[in-house]
Specification:
- This protein has 149 residues and is an all-alpha fold.
- It has one domain.
- 81% of the residues lie in helices and 0% in strands.
- The protein has 5 helices and no strands.
- α1 packs antiparallel against α5.
């Protein structure tokens, strides 16, 4: 019974982390829209408006994708590993992209040199998503292995 409660807590936790991460990305998207509409050129003269718009669409898409995957994880519970694999792949890709954007001159957006609270928060949340999703996948595999003779 203890394992069942731990699994339920893990599923709720990863869904919560995904919904919060999605909300963070949607907030960043709205900030990018505000910057693109006004003071953006003054704050970041090396970045183009097109780059800001691409970032806005990217952040909105990521934010919009995290939320339904989190809800899918809740609805599928431990019957499917797919939402957890998607969460690991998506969060891992975003972590890699973040590191690249700080170390390489990316097309359209250039090389970013800012690291703020929201950056750190989103990366910590994504690390949590990866860790809890990996735990869930391993637990599902163990349970299925134990149920087959």
């Amino acid at each position: 019974m203890k394992n069942k409660k731990t699994m339920q807590l893990a599923i709720v936790s990863v869904a919560f982390l995904m919904v919060i991460t999605g909300a963070v990305y949607l907030v960043v998207a709205t900030e990018e829209i505000a910057e693109a509409n006004g003071v953006y050129e003054e704050q970041n003269p090396n970045e183009s408006i097109e780059g800001a718009l691409i970032e806005t669409v990217f952040f909105a898409t990521v934010g919009g994708a995290y939320i339904p995957v989190g809800l899918w994880a809740i609805s599928s519970r431990d019957s499917s590993k797919t939402p957890y694999f998607l969460a690991i792949i998506g969060s891992g890709a975003l972590l890699i992209l973040y590191i690249l954007s700080r170390t390489v001159n990316m097309p359209l957006v250039g090389q970013q040199n800012d690291v703020g609270f929201i950056d750190i928060l989103s990366k910590v949340l994504q690390g949590g998503i990866i860790a809890v999703s990996a735990y869930i996948i391993i637990s599902i595999r163990r349970e299925k292995k134990a149920s087959y003779p």
